[in-house]
Amino acid sequence: MKKPTVGQMLFSLNVGNAARNRDQVLTPVTVTKVGRKYFYAATHRGREIKYELGTWVESTNYCANSILYLTKQAWLDVKEKNELTQKIKEYFGPYGGSHKLTLIKLQQIDEIILNDESRVKANFGTS
């Protein structure tokens, strides 16, 4: 992740215990300080929260209450990816769902997976 700059607006999402039994809400925050390992972002109420530079996750000894995103669209992309992954898992179920698909569709899915694995191997130089 890129290093944020002082004054930059980011978006905080409540996670972990802060999201338990309530909706996840994206809230704008402003970067107030940037160091070598951590940076701080303030909510509209002025409360500063410490985040790790490498992950943009709240720095705490316990369960993190928030994670930051560069844009609203970045969060929407993650959310859609999670929803699609869950939908695919539910479709196949614990015992597989291949009986629901034709051979051609299964071959197309296999091709998509193989292309993705090849791309990952090419990027990391593994075989």
Number of domain units: 2
Chain-averaged pLDDT: 88
Query: Gyration radius, to the nearest Å?
Result: 20 Å
Helix content: 25-40%
Number of distinct helices: 2
Shape: elongated
- Helix/strand-derived category reads alpha+beta
Largest sheet: 5 strands, antiparallel
* Succession of helices and strands: EEEEEHH
Low-confidence stretches: none
Structure at a glance:
This protein is of the alpha+beta class and 127 residues long.
Features:
127 residues, alpha+beta, 2 domains, 34% helix
Polypeptide structure, described:
This protein has 127 residues and is an alpha+beta fold. Helix content is 34%, strand content 23%. The protein contains 2 helices and 5 strands, in the order βββββαα. The protein has helices at residues 72-92, 103-124; strands spanning 9-14, 26-34, 38-42, 48-52, 66-69. It has a 5-stranded antiparallel beta sheet with strand order 4-3-2-1-5, covered by helices on one side. The protein starts with 8 loop residues before the first strand and ends with a helix.
Helix-strand layout with pairing:
Elements lengths: L8 E6 L11 E9 L3 E5 L5 E5 L13 E4 L2 H21 L10 H22 L3
Antiparallel strand pairs: 1-2, 1-5, 2-3, 3-4
